[in-house]
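seq:
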Amino acid sequence: MLSFPNKDPDEVLDYVLDWSLRLGSDSIITSSWVVDNPGLVINSNSYVPTNTTIWLSAGVVNVSYLLTNHVVTQGGRTMEQSVKIKIKEK
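struct:
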């Protein structure tokens, strides 16, 4: 399982997921994210042909969250990747 670096609950940060190895010559045409627990806020998300970006804020200290990114590709593929992130005071 992939992990993003720890995040402080007061930070608003962007995290990038690189899909290029799985995509090959294909490209992303839609991207959406889901978080498994309340408390962590998805401020926004975006994508370019080979990676996705999510902006996160808030979160509960010492809680680990599971984020799942769902993409659809130009070639008709649907793919998911889950990423863990832990909230820690810095």
